[in-house]
Write a structure and sequence with these properties.
The protein is α/β, with parallel strands linked by helices. Helices cover about 40% and strands about 15% of the residues. The chain is built from 20 helices and 14 strands. Strands 10-11-9-12-14-13 form a six-stranded mixed sheet, covered by helices on one side. A five-stranded antiparallel sheet has the order 2-1-5-4-3, with helices on both faces. Helix 5 packs antiparallel against helix 6 and helix 18 packs antiparallel against helix 19. Belongs to the DENND6 family.
Length: about 575
């Protein structure tokens, strides 16, 4: 007995953000919409003020002035990109002023079932942009320039790019009424439920997506037809809500993938100078995803400009560069960020097909403020040897015109197995002390003990790559990603131990334990049990429904054994 010692129907709406007459005020307006998106923004170019926020839907969503300014500047390619026609890209901005309202329970439920790398952002917003710039003689500037932006805390880049591809052309043709209809359709979508395949209708199309779960195998896509087998129209099936085509994104840097993986694993500062916001944002997102299933714990900005509110913070020379991956298109950053240790310069994409010219490793001293040639400018030396067999298979597959999806899967599997080989020895460390205390305590992590264990239980057991694994682990221990991994691992162990502790209490003979206990001890047990029950019901640690039911019965039984005055205090009418 030591363990004992320790939404209704959707309201009718008129214009966005306002209730129709006679409708009752909802408990959570736009609850289903906000499970996917924070808001939708329209940014246009004004001759007098430059980029301007034209519309925000729903209209009652509050953005700070700094957030509005960031969205405006980041929704347009800068003048160096020369983007004509339709362009899609993404950005990520810091949320100002912290959380403006407590997270609803649905968010906690989603995060408890989602992989750590796909949980909702708590302090940043993603912006998914569809920008159109076409010649228009009716405009004073001679061009029509407008962006449609989806703002979300979900890192579902593939889903939101596909959604923009459907709704943006309609919006540019029909404008506000079309956007209002789309927002109302999204407000009828089911919430993103990890492990579920969902049908999401919008503008006459049904998007079918699988929401990843932490119990999914990371190298497979369990998408299946769901719901209505005879669904009309036929669903547009997305193979992933978040995965980009890694082979396409990494084509210019295939010979440096090993080095870039190490830089991402270690959370090193990196600038990606690309010819367009599309290439910039996709490269940054591909880089930060290549260490999955680890969560990328550093800051990253898929597209960043000189107008960003963090420009001074990131470019200061008075302190070491921050652990950030910056995607930029303005060559001005070559001069401004010369003191950064790693700069990746990407050239124009090859239009004729085939593999683009590969970037080479170059010394930082060869950086030129003007006309910097493509290359990875760094003094870093990779700890692991390059996987020549992988490069040969990728290049061979390209020459034989293998499907791009197969090459992307090959590259993603290689990076996934590489990261898993690195992480598996860390997971093998005993996470808690024997159950001599209640609840049991987690054992601290000792780096020296771990490094000694690598001789017989290291990554060489699961990975053929040779090199200085020991040196890579030593640098990893000093990186933000080790701190992030350890915090997440500790959190998972605490949740598991709390669940085991609650099960132990529920399986114990509480009546026997109570015989020699004072009223104070019994009341303390009731309060602790209640606290654990509330946390378990809020998905803060995993327990079976049967355990929750037994805990509730135990609470009622213990309270019933107390004097009437204490019962009245613990269960006020």
């Amino acid at each position: 007995m030591d363990a004992l010692s320790s939404a209704g129907s959707r309201p009718a709406r008129g214009r966005l953000g306002a209730l129709s007459s006679g409708a009752q005020a909802p408990a959570a307006p736009w609850a289903r919409f906000s499970a996917w998106l924070e808001c939708v923004c329209v940014v246009t170019f004004d001759l007098e003020v430059g980029q301007a926020l034209e519309l925000v839907y729903p209209s009652d969503f509050r953005l700070t002035d700094k957030e509005k300014s960031s969205i405006c500047y980041l929704s347009f390619p800068d003048s160096h990109s020369g983007c004509l026609g339709d362009t899609q890209f993404s950005f990520r901005i810091r949320q100002c002023g912290g959380q403006r309202s407590p997270w609803p329970t649905d968010d906690r439920h989603y995060d408890s079932g989602a992989p750590v790398s796909l949980q909702k952002e708590s302090s940043h917003y993603f912006g998914y942009v569809y920008f159109r710039q076409v010649k228009d003689s009716s405009m004073k500037r001679g061009y029509f320039q407008k962006s449609l932006v989806l703002v979300s805390r979900l890192p579902f880049v593939r889903l939101f790019q596909a959604l923009l591809g459907l709704i943006a052309p309609e919006f540019f043709d029909k404008l506000a009424p079309c956007l209002e209809a789309v927002c109302n359709e999204i407000d009828q979508w089911p919430a993103p439920e990890p492990g579920q395949t969902l049908n999401l209708p919008v503008v006459g199309v049904v998007l079918q997506v699988h929401v990843p779960s932490k119990v999914d195998k990371p190298d497979c896509s369990p998408l299946k037809q769901c719901g209505h087998k005879n669904l009309l129209p036929t669903p547009l099936v997305l193979s992933s809500v978040h995965e980009l085509d890694l082979f396409r994104c990494f084509q210019p840097v295939l010979t440096q993938v090993q080095t870039l993986w190490e830089l991402m694993l270690l959370g090193e500062p990196l600038v990606v100078l690309a010819p367009s916001p599309t290439v910039s944002s996709e490269m940054v997102l591909a880089l930060t995803s290549c260490v999955q299933p680890l969560k990328f714990c550093c800051d990253y900005r898929p597209y960043f400009t000189v107008h960003d509110s963090e420009f001074k913070e990131f470019t200061t020379r008075t302190q070491a560069p921050p652990n950030v991956v910056l995607g930029v298109t303005n060559p001005f950053f070559i001069k401004t960020l010369q003191h950064w240790p790693h700069i990746l310069r990407i050239g124009e994409p090859k239009l004729s097909g085939g593999l683009p010219k590969q970037v080479k490793l170059k010394k930082p001293s060869r950086l030129k403020t003007l006309d910097t040639k493509p290359g990875l400018y760094t003094a870093y030396t990779a700890h692991l040897h390059r996987d020549k067999a992988l490069l040969k298979r990728l290049l061979g597959g390209l020459q034989k015109r293998r499907p791009p999806g197969a090459l992307a899967a090959l590259l993603r599997t290689h990076l996934l197995e590489l990261t898993q080989s690195f992480v598996i020895p860390l997971k093998s460390v005993t996470p808690w002390k024997p159950l001599s205390q209640a609840p049991p305590q987690i054992r601290p992590f000792h780096q020296d003990d771990f490094l000694r264990s690598l001789d017989h239980a290291g990554p060489q057991l699961t990975c053929i790559l040779k090199g200085d694994w020991l040196g890579l682990y030593r640098r990893f221990f000093k990186s933000p990603h080790f701190d992030g991994w350890y915090r997440q691992r500790r959190k998972e162990m605490v949740r598991k131990l709390e669940a085991l502790h609650l099960e132990a209490i529920c399986e114990a003979n509480i009546e026997t334990w109570m015989k020699d206990k004072s009223e104070v001890e019994v009341v303390d047990l009731v309060l602790k049990l209640r606290e654990k029950l509330v946390r378990a019901q809020g998905h803060q640690f995993p327990v079976r429904e049967e355990t929750l039911h037994r805990a509730q019965l135990n609470i009622e039984m213990v309270i019933g054994s107390l004097p009437k005055d204490l019962q009245a205090v613990l269960c006020p009418r």
